Amino acid sequence: MKGNPTHPLNTEKGGDLTRSEESKQRILLAGTAIFALKGLEGSRVDEIADEAKINKRMIYHYFESKENLYVEVLRYNYTKLYARGSSVIQSGADPETVIKQGIREYFYYLAEHDEFVRLMSWEALNQEKYANRVLPQLIDPAEPVLREFLQEGQRAGLIRKNIDIRHLLVSVNALCLVYFSRREMLQTFWKEDMMAPAMLEERLTHIQDIIFNGILKHGEEEM
Questions:
Q1: How far is it, in rounded angstroms, from Cα 185 to Cα 167?
Q2: What does the pLDDT look like over 64-117, one tens digit per residue?
Q3: Which of 108, 113, 216 is nearest to 160 (CA)?
Q4: This prediction's pTM
Q5: d(Cα 116, Cα 131) in Å, to the nearest integer?
Q6: Where does the chain have alpha helices with state H?
């Protein structure tokens, strides 16, 4: 994305900067909607411009290409998710509370952002070609912090010592994501509305029970 909002040259043009950022925001939201529906290959810049109610030349001005816009749409959405997770990690709570709240935040982010779920599905089909340009920038700084929380729980005798943070993250992702990414198929034999508040809480409780039964140290185990 072109430009740096904090650059000294931009400080004297507050009005222009505000309009510029507002335009970019509209493009990113429109890009999210169109890319989620059709994927990168099936989407056209004209469609995104129409959705954003903006001249398509501005899309090329800010993002240079459809591929760059797609990467920035992924970054925009992953960053929102990362911000929710970071707020939990920085809360200073005990490891069990942090893990439980982290699962809740991820689960409900997926529940509230169907377009993000669809973007993840498109990326899975394309072997994470574009997501891999974004995720390391978010995951690499976060992994040591997550690892430390896990180790803190292990030192306190709360969490089993053979738990690997990578396997834990994969398990949480799988248990949460499949409920939403395969919802249309699962709903055919699910009696209740899978997106009803009570049903979402039931699913979340099930996921938390599975995770914590797997990682918590039980009374019969040696400290």
A1: 26
A2: 999 999 999 999 999 999 888 877 776 567 777 888 888 999 999 999 999 999
A3: 216
A4: 0.82
A5: 12
A6: 14-42, 45-52, 56-63, 66-89, 95-112, 114-125, 135-155, 165-181, 183-186, 197-215
